[in-house]
Please model this.
Amino acid sequence: GIQVEQSPPDLILQEGANSTLRCNFSDSVNNLQWFHQNPWGQLINLFYIPSGTKQNGRLSATTVATERYSLLYISSSQTTDSGVYFCAVDMRGSTLGRLYFGRGTQLTVWP
Amino acid sequence: NAGVTQTPKFRVLKTGQSMTLLCAQDMNHEYMYWYRQDPGMGLRLIHYSVGEGTTAKGEVPDGYNVSRLKKQNFLLGLESAAPSQTSVYFCASSFGGKYNEQFFGPGTRLTVL
Model:
């Protein structure tokens, strides 16, 4: 299967700081999703972004499919941004839709 | 719309007991998935279904069975629970095909003693 690597594994920020999370993948993909797992364990869809750039409030994401990576930008971070951020990909050529997950980036935002 | 729901939210089993986890979705999705999440790891696929009446094995299927008798429901069964099956279980669904955004349920936390 496809390999998905996320960096950094842990990130600690002061409220108001900006951050960039990275996701590298080893093969071509049909789609890429970013999720936020909040402290209660719920997985929240952030972006469905197989290529290009999208923005949603303080968050934005860019996927460069030809170079096999995606970036998640968080600006003016807030304590509610804390949690684990996962990148997941669906391998190109597959119609099964199964997602391969990275191990996540644990983000802690201090007030 | 409720989206994807899972029952129960928490469960404690003894080794050797059986149980069934229920996933339901009201988005008319064709594809449904069961994943497990272990500490420090991303989610791994257990079984999936690409339509009513169909099921297939994922990455870690051993010790689990599934059924998809109705389009909106996907059941995950543990016939004889083992401590290694202690995990958080997530169900997901999507329309399927090449462009396939998945939506996840809230999870079921299972402990096997």
